[in-house]
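Researcher: We're teaching a course module on how sequence relates to structure. For the next exercise, students receive a sequence and then see the predicted structure as C-alpha coordinates, so they can try to spot secondary structure elements on their own. Here is the exercise chain.
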Amino acid sequence: MNALKLSAYTLSTAVGQGIDANLKALKNGNSGLEPCRFFDINDLSTYCGHIDACDELKLEPRLKDYDCRNNRLTALTLEQDSFASKVSALKLKYSSNRIGVFIGTSTSGIHETERAYIEQAKRGSLEQLPAWYNYQGTHNVYSCAEFVRNYFKLNGYSSAISTACSSSAKVFAAAQRAIALGICDAAIVGGVDSLCLTTLYGFNSLQVIANELCRPSDKNRKGINIGEAAGFAIVEPANNEDSAIMMLAYGESSDAHHMSTPHPDGIGAQLAMQKALNQAKLNSEDINYINLHGTGTNANDLSESRAVCELFGKYVAASSTKGWTGHTLGAAGIIEAIYSVLSIEHQWRPKSLNTLEIDPQINANILLDSSHADIDYVLSNSFGFGGSNCSLIFGGQA
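Model: And here is the predicted structure for the students to work with:
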Protein backbone atom coordinates (compact mmCIF):
# COMPACT_ATOMS: atom_id res chain seq x y z
CA MET A 1 0.00 0.00 0.00
CA ASN A 2 1.28 3.49 -0.85
CA ALA A 3 1.45 5.91 2.07
CA LEU A 4 -0.22 9.31 1.90
CA LYS A 5 1.54 12.43 3.11
CA LEU A 6 -0.46 15.05 4.96
CA SER A 7 0.66 18.25 3.26
CA ALA A 8 -1.80 20.48 5.15
CA TYR A 9 -4.39 20.16 7.88
CA THR A 10 -6.62 22.24 10.10
CA LEU A 11 -9.38 21.74 12.66
CA SER A 12 -11.97 23.44 14.83
CA THR A 13 -13.04 21.95 18.16
CA ALA A 14 -14.52 23.15 21.40
CA VAL A 15 -11.02 23.93 22.70
CA GLY A 16 -10.24 26.30 19.86
CA GLN A 17 -10.00 27.10 16.18
CA GLY A 18 -6.86 26.10 14.32
CA ILE A 19 -3.77 24.04 15.06
CA ASP A 20 -2.14 26.44 17.53
CA ALA A 21 -5.26 26.83 19.69
CA ASN A 22 -5.82 23.08 19.86
CA LEU A 23 -2.19 22.29 20.63
CA LYS A 24 -2.11 24.92 23.38
CA ALA A 25 -5.25 23.53 25.00
CA LEU A 26 -3.93 19.97 24.83
CA LYS A 27 -0.65 20.92 26.45
CA ASN A 28 -2.30 23.06 29.12
CA GLY A 29 -4.99 20.49 29.92
CA ASN A 30 -7.83 22.91 29.13
CA SER A 31 -11.08 21.15 28.27
CA GLY A 32 -13.55 22.76 25.91
CA LEU A 33 -16.52 21.08 27.55
CA GLU A 34 -19.11 23.11 29.44
CA PRO A 35 -22.74 22.73 30.56
CA CYS A 36 -24.97 22.19 27.53
CA ARG A 37 -26.58 25.39 26.25
CA PHE A 38 -27.33 24.40 22.67
CA PHE A 39 -30.58 25.66 21.14
CA ASP A 40 -32.14 26.61 24.48
CA ILE A 41 -32.03 23.03 25.77
CA ASN A 42 -33.07 23.08 29.41
CA ASP A 43 -34.07 19.49 30.15
CA LEU A 44 -30.76 17.68 29.57
CA SER A 45 -28.16 17.73 32.30
CA THR A 46 -24.91 17.17 30.43
CA TYR A 47 -21.78 18.84 29.10
CA CYS A 48 -21.17 19.74 25.45
CA GLY A 49 -18.40 21.05 23.24
CA HIS A 50 -19.73 24.21 21.55
CA ILE A 51 -18.22 26.25 18.70
CA ASP A 52 -20.05 29.56 18.80
CA ALA A 53 -18.09 31.19 15.98
CA CYS A 54 -20.02 29.30 13.30
CA ASP A 55 -23.32 30.92 14.38
CA GLU A 56 -22.46 34.37 13.03
CA LEU A 57 -20.57 33.31 9.91
CA LYS A 58 -22.12 34.33 6.60
CA LEU A 59 -21.63 32.21 3.49
CA GLU A 60 -20.96 33.98 0.21
CA PRO A 61 -24.07 34.31 -2.02
CA ARG A 62 -23.03 31.58 -4.47
CA LEU A 63 -23.15 29.06 -1.59
CA LYS A 64 -26.46 30.20 -0.07
CA ASP A 65 -28.20 26.89 -0.85
CA TYR A 66 -25.83 25.17 1.58
CA ASP A 67 -26.43 27.53 4.48
CA CYS A 68 -26.69 25.55 7.72
CA ARG A 69 -24.72 25.25 10.94
CA ASN A 70 -22.81 22.23 9.64
CA ASN A 71 -21.59 23.95 6.48
CA ARG A 72 -20.86 27.21 8.29
CA LEU A 73 -18.63 25.23 10.65
CA THR A 74 -16.99 23.74 7.55
CA ALA A 75 -16.38 27.17 5.99
CA LEU A 76 -15.00 28.51 9.26
CA THR A 77 -12.48 25.68 9.39
CA LEU A 78 -11.44 25.78 5.74
CA GLU A 79 -10.19 29.36 6.18
CA GLN A 80 -7.78 28.51 9.02
CA ASP A 81 -4.09 27.57 9.02
CA SER A 82 -3.68 28.80 5.40
CA PHE A 83 -5.64 25.73 4.32
CA ALA A 84 -7.55 27.51 1.52
CA SER A 85 -4.35 28.93 0.00
CA LYS A 86 -2.78 25.47 0.10
CA VAL A 87 -5.78 24.08 -1.78
CA SER A 88 -5.25 26.81 -4.40
CA ALA A 89 -1.64 25.65 -4.78
CA LEU A 90 -2.85 22.07 -5.02
CA LYS A 91 -5.15 23.02 -7.91
CA LEU A 92 -2.20 24.49 -9.78
CA LYS A 93 -0.20 21.31 -9.17
CA TYR A 94 -2.83 18.74 -10.15
CA SER A 95 -5.75 20.67 -11.77
CA SER A 96 -9.21 21.04 -10.27
CA ASN A 97 -10.59 17.86 -11.86
CA ARG A 98 -7.88 15.61 -10.36
CA ILE A 99 -8.44 16.50 -6.69
CA GLY A 100 -10.85 14.24 -4.83
CA VAL A 101 -13.04 15.22 -1.88
CA PHE A 102 -13.86 12.67 0.83
CA ILE A 103 -15.90 13.91 3.78
CA GLY A 104 -17.23 11.98 6.76
CA THR A 105 -20.29 12.99 8.75
CA SER A 106 -22.81 11.35 11.01
CA THR A 107 -25.79 13.70 10.98
CA SER A 108 -24.81 16.30 8.36
CA GLY A 109 -27.09 19.37 8.56
CA ILE A 110 -29.97 17.63 10.31
CA HIS A 111 -30.44 20.61 12.62
CA GLU A 112 -31.93 22.53 9.68
CA THR A 113 -34.63 19.86 9.45
CA GLU A 114 -35.18 20.05 13.20
CA ARG A 115 -35.63 23.82 12.93
CA ALA A 116 -38.00 23.41 10.00
CA TYR A 117 -40.25 20.97 11.87
CA ILE A 118 -40.22 23.16 14.98
CA GLU A 119 -41.35 26.15 12.92
CA GLN A 120 -43.96 24.02 11.19
CA ALA A 121 -45.34 22.89 14.55
CA LYS A 122 -45.48 26.48 15.82
CA ARG A 123 -47.55 27.44 12.77
CA GLY A 124 -49.93 24.62 13.56
CA SER A 125 -49.78 23.36 9.98
CA LEU A 126 -48.39 19.97 9.01
CA GLU A 127 -48.93 20.43 5.29
CA GLN A 128 -45.80 22.23 4.20
CA LEU A 129 -42.32 22.88 5.55
CA PRO A 130 -41.02 26.50 5.63
CA ALA A 131 -40.03 28.01 2.31
CA TRP A 132 -36.47 28.64 3.53
CA TYR A 133 -35.84 24.93 4.17
CA ASN A 134 -33.52 23.22 1.67
CA TYR A 135 -33.00 19.52 2.34
CA GLN A 136 -30.70 18.94 -0.62
CA GLY A 137 -28.14 21.53 0.40
CA THR A 138 -28.24 21.00 4.15
CA HIS A 139 -29.57 17.76 5.66
CA ASN A 140 -28.61 15.51 2.74
CA VAL A 141 -25.58 13.46 3.87
CA TYR A 142 -23.69 14.48 0.71
CA SER A 143 -24.22 18.16 1.49
CA CYS A 144 -20.85 18.79 3.14
CA ALA A 145 -18.83 16.95 0.50
CA GLU A 146 -20.58 18.90 -2.25
CA PHE A 147 -20.12 22.11 -0.26
CA VAL A 148 -16.35 21.58 0.05
CA ARG A 149 -16.14 20.70 -3.64
CA ASN A 150 -18.00 23.87 -4.64
CA TYR A 151 -16.27 26.02 -2.03
CA PHE A 152 -12.93 25.39 -3.76
CA LYS A 153 -14.44 25.13 -7.27
CA LEU A 154 -13.23 21.57 -7.75
CA ASN A 155 -14.49 19.26 -10.50
CA GLY A 156 -13.11 15.88 -9.45
CA TYR A 157 -14.53 12.86 -7.70
CA SER A 158 -16.26 13.45 -4.38
CA SER A 159 -17.86 11.23 -1.80
CA ALA A 160 -19.60 11.40 1.57
CA ILE A 161 -19.00 8.64 4.12
CA SER A 162 -21.45 8.11 6.95
CA THR A 163 -20.53 5.17 9.16
CA ALA A 164 -21.34 6.78 12.50
CA CYS A 165 -18.26 7.55 14.60
CA SER A 166 -15.75 6.00 12.20
CA SER A 167 -16.88 8.21 9.29
CA SER A 168 -13.96 10.63 9.08
CA ALA A 169 -11.35 7.97 9.80
CA LYS A 170 -12.58 6.00 6.81
CA VAL A 171 -12.05 8.99 4.50
CA PHE A 172 -8.30 8.27 4.61
CA ALA A 173 -8.90 4.73 3.45
CA ALA A 174 -11.28 5.87 0.71
CA ALA A 175 -8.82 8.52 -0.51
CA GLN A 176 -5.92 6.07 -0.57
CA ARG A 177 -7.91 3.59 -2.67
CA ALA A 178 -9.07 6.31 -5.08
CA ILE A 179 -5.55 7.64 -5.57
CA ALA A 180 -4.17 4.11 -6.04
CA LEU A 181 -6.83 3.41 -8.68
CA GLY A 182 -6.08 6.64 -10.55
CA ILE A 183 -9.47 8.19 -9.85
CA CYS A 184 -7.71 11.26 -8.45
CA ASP A 185 -4.13 12.43 -7.90
CA ALA A 186 -4.62 14.03 -4.48
CA ALA A 187 -7.51 14.60 -2.11
CA ILE A 188 -9.08 16.74 0.55
CA VAL A 189 -10.22 14.50 3.37
CA GLY A 190 -12.15 15.58 6.41
CA GLY A 191 -15.15 15.36 8.64
CA VAL A 192 -17.69 17.60 10.27
CA ASP A 193 -20.53 17.15 12.73
CA SER A 194 -22.37 19.96 14.46
CA LEU A 195 -24.58 19.83 17.53
CA CYS A 196 -28.19 18.89 16.96
CA LEU A 197 -31.19 17.78 18.95
CA THR A 198 -31.24 14.31 17.38
CA THR A 199 -27.87 13.24 18.75
CA LEU A 200 -28.27 14.88 22.15
CA TYR A 201 -31.68 13.41 22.86
CA GLY A 202 -30.91 10.21 20.96
CA PHE A 203 -27.84 9.33 23.02
CA ASN A 204 -29.74 10.36 26.13
CA SER A 205 -32.42 7.80 25.23
CA LEU A 206 -29.64 5.20 25.05
CA GLN A 207 -28.71 6.21 28.60
CA VAL A 208 -25.09 6.94 27.71
CA ILE A 209 -25.08 10.74 28.17
CA ALA A 210 -23.02 11.75 31.20
CA ASN A 211 -24.36 14.41 33.55
CA GLU A 212 -20.77 15.40 34.35
CA LEU A 213 -17.53 15.79 32.43
CA CYS A 214 -16.78 12.58 30.53
CA ARG A 215 -14.05 10.44 32.11
CA PRO A 216 -12.77 7.82 29.65
CA SER A 217 -11.53 4.61 31.31
CA ASP A 218 -12.34 5.96 34.76
CA LYS A 219 -13.71 3.62 37.41
CA ASN A 220 -16.72 5.91 37.84
CA ARG A 221 -17.29 6.96 34.23
CA LYS A 222 -20.90 7.74 33.36
CA GLY A 223 -20.92 8.12 29.60
CA ILE A 224 -20.24 10.58 26.82
CA ASN A 225 -20.30 14.32 26.30
CA ILE A 226 -21.16 15.35 22.75
CA GLY A 227 -19.11 17.97 20.95
CA GLU A 228 -19.10 19.56 17.54
CA ALA A 229 -16.02 19.80 15.36
CA ALA A 230 -14.61 19.95 11.86
CA GLY A 231 -11.24 18.94 10.50
CA PHE A 232 -9.65 18.72 7.06
CA ALA A 233 -6.39 17.55 5.54
CA ILE A 234 -4.76 17.48 2.13
CA VAL A 235 -3.33 14.08 1.28
CA GLU A 236 -1.00 13.25 -1.58
CA PRO A 237 1.07 10.22 -2.61
CA ALA A 238 4.24 9.98 -0.54
CA ASN A 239 7.77 9.01 -1.47
CA ASN A 240 10.92 8.28 0.48
CA GLU A 241 12.14 11.86 0.13
CA ASP A 242 9.14 13.42 1.87
CA SER A 243 9.58 14.74 5.40
CA ALA A 244 5.87 15.25 6.10
CA ILE A 245 3.88 13.02 8.46
CA MET A 246 2.30 10.10 6.60
CA MET A 247 -0.87 8.11 6.89
CA LEU A 248 0.95 4.80 6.59
CA ALA A 249 -1.90 2.35 6.82
CA TYR A 250 -5.54 1.75 7.64
CA GLY A 251 -7.44 -1.22 8.94
CA GLU A 252 -11.19 -1.65 8.61
CA SER A 253 -13.59 -4.22 9.99
CA SER A 254 -17.28 -4.73 10.66
CA ASP A 255 -18.11 -7.07 13.50
CA ALA A 256 -21.87 -6.32 13.41
CA HIS A 257 -22.17 -7.54 16.99
CA HIS A 258 -24.95 -5.13 17.94
CA MET A 259 -26.55 -1.97 16.57
CA SER A 260 -25.04 0.29 19.25
CA THR A 261 -22.81 -1.85 21.50
CA PRO A 262 -19.34 -3.18 20.62
CA HIS A 263 -18.42 -6.83 21.02
CA PRO A 264 -17.43 -7.22 24.69
CA ASP A 265 -14.04 -8.68 23.74
CA GLY A 266 -13.38 -6.08 21.06
CA ILE A 267 -13.13 -8.63 18.25
CA GLY A 268 -13.88 -6.08 15.50
CA ALA A 269 -11.59 -3.48 17.04
CA GLN A 270 -8.78 -6.01 17.28
CA LEU A 271 -9.22 -7.00 13.64
CA ALA A 272 -9.08 -3.37 12.46
CA MET A 273 -5.90 -2.69 14.44
CA GLN A 274 -4.25 -5.89 13.21
CA LYS A 275 -5.09 -5.07 9.60
CA ALA A 276 -3.50 -1.64 10.00
CA LEU A 277 -0.35 -3.18 11.47
CA ASN A 278 -0.17 -5.71 8.66
CA GLN A 279 -0.63 -3.07 5.98
CA ALA A 280 2.06 -0.86 7.51
CA LYS A 281 4.35 -3.91 7.92
CA LEU A 282 4.83 -3.03 11.57
CA ASN A 283 4.82 -5.08 14.75
CA SER A 284 2.77 -4.15 17.78
CA GLU A 285 5.89 -3.05 19.66
CA ASP A 286 6.61 -0.45 16.95
CA ILE A 287 3.60 1.63 18.02
CA ASN A 288 4.58 4.33 20.51
CA TYR A 289 1.14 5.75 21.35
CA ILE A 290 -2.49 4.81 20.79
CA ASN A 291 -5.19 7.47 20.51
CA LEU A 292 -8.13 5.46 21.79
CA HIS A 293 -11.70 5.77 20.61
CA GLY A 294 -12.32 6.05 24.36
CA THR A 295 -15.84 7.46 24.57
CA GLY A 296 -16.32 7.15 28.33
CA THR A 297 -19.09 4.56 28.21
CA ASN A 298 -18.77 1.37 30.23
CA ALA A 299 -19.07 -0.95 27.23
CA ASN A 300 -16.80 0.90 24.79
CA ASP A 301 -13.87 1.55 27.07
CA LEU A 302 -13.73 -1.99 28.45
CA SER A 303 -14.12 -3.58 25.02
CA GLU A 304 -11.40 -1.41 23.48
CA SER A 305 -9.04 -2.10 26.38
CA ARG A 306 -9.42 -5.85 25.88
CA ALA A 307 -8.70 -5.49 22.17
CA VAL A 308 -5.67 -3.29 22.79
CA CYS A 309 -4.25 -5.63 25.42
CA GLU A 310 -4.70 -8.63 23.14
CA LEU A 311 -2.50 -7.01 20.49
CA PHE A 312 -0.21 -4.68 22.41
CA GLY A 313 -0.11 -6.11 25.90
CA LYS A 314 -0.25 -3.66 28.79
CA TYR A 315 2.72 -1.52 27.80
CA VAL A 316 1.91 0.75 24.86
CA ALA A 317 0.84 4.16 26.17
CA ALA A 318 -2.75 5.04 25.34
CA SER A 319 -5.27 7.77 26.06
CA SER A 320 -8.54 9.24 24.88
CA THR A 321 -8.68 12.91 23.92
CA LYS A 322 -12.46 13.15 24.19
CA GLY A 323 -12.09 14.82 27.59
CA TRP A 324 -10.99 17.91 25.64
CA THR A 325 -13.41 17.92 22.72
CA GLY A 326 -16.26 15.66 23.69
CA HIS A 327 -17.32 12.89 21.34
CA THR A 328 -17.54 14.65 17.99
CA LEU A 329 -19.20 11.66 16.31
CA GLY A 330 -18.67 11.83 12.53
CA ALA A 331 -15.79 14.29 13.00
CA ALA A 332 -13.99 12.23 15.66
CA GLY A 333 -11.83 10.31 13.19
CA ILE A 334 -10.26 13.36 11.53
CA ILE A 335 -9.89 15.30 14.80
CA GLU A 336 -8.05 12.44 16.49
CA ALA A 337 -6.02 11.76 13.35
CA ILE A 338 -4.75 15.35 13.49
CA TYR A 339 -4.09 15.02 17.23
CA SER A 340 -2.07 11.89 16.41
CA VAL A 341 -0.04 13.83 13.85
CA LEU A 342 0.61 16.56 16.43
CA SER A 343 1.83 13.90 18.86
CA ILE A 344 4.46 12.83 16.35
CA GLU A 345 5.44 16.35 15.39
CA HIS A 346 5.88 17.46 18.99
CA GLN A 347 7.01 14.12 20.44
CA TRP A 348 4.31 14.39 23.06
CA ARG A 349 1.56 12.14 24.41
CA PRO A 350 -1.60 13.67 25.90
CA LYS A 351 -3.13 12.28 29.05
CA SER A 352 -6.66 10.96 29.36
CA LEU A 353 -8.17 14.23 30.58
CA ASN A 354 -10.67 14.00 33.49
CA THR A 355 -9.69 10.38 34.22
CA LEU A 356 -9.00 10.16 37.96
CA GLU A 357 -8.97 6.47 38.86
CA ILE A 358 -8.61 3.84 36.17
CA ASP A 359 -11.24 1.12 36.12
CA PRO A 360 -9.52 -2.00 37.58
CA GLN A 361 -11.01 -4.03 34.70
CA ILE A 362 -9.21 -1.82 32.17
CA ASN A 363 -5.66 -3.11 31.76
CA ALA A 364 -4.51 -0.93 28.88
CA ASN A 365 -1.71 1.51 29.75
CA ILE A 366 -3.90 4.60 30.20
CA LEU A 367 -1.92 7.83 30.58
CA LEU A 368 -2.92 9.88 33.61
CA ASP A 369 -0.21 12.45 32.88
CA SER A 370 0.90 14.00 29.62
CA SER A 371 4.54 13.54 28.74
CA HIS A 372 7.24 13.98 26.14
CA ALA A 373 8.35 10.73 24.53
CA ASP A 374 10.07 9.33 21.46
CA ILE A 375 7.21 8.80 19.02
CA ASP A 376 7.67 7.30 15.57
CA TYR A 377 4.28 5.66 15.06
CA VAL A 378 0.81 6.44 16.39
CA LEU A 379 -2.30 4.31 15.99
CA SER A 380 -5.67 6.10 16.09
CA ASN A 381 -8.92 4.20 16.67
CA SER A 382 -12.43 5.14 15.55
CA PHE A 383 -15.30 2.73 16.14
CA GLY A 384 -18.87 3.34 14.99
CA PHE A 385 -22.30 1.94 15.68
CA GLY A 386 -23.01 -1.42 14.10
CA GLY A 387 -19.37 -2.45 14.50
CA SER A 388 -18.01 -0.16 11.79
CA ASN A 389 -14.37 0.03 12.85
CA CYS A 390 -11.35 1.87 11.47
CA SER A 391 -7.78 2.12 12.75
CA LEU A 392 -5.17 4.43 11.20
CA ILE A 393 -1.39 4.43 11.60
CA PHE A 394 0.60 7.64 11.23
CA GLY A 395 4.36 7.99 11.05
CA GLY A 396 7.20 9.87 9.44
CA GLN A 397 8.35 7.36 6.83
CA ALA A 398 6.80 6.35 3.54
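Model: If you want an answer key for the exercise: The domain at 4-395 is CATH 3.40.47.10 (Peroxisomal Thiolase; Chain A, domain 1). Residues 35 and 47 are 4 Å apart (CA to CA).
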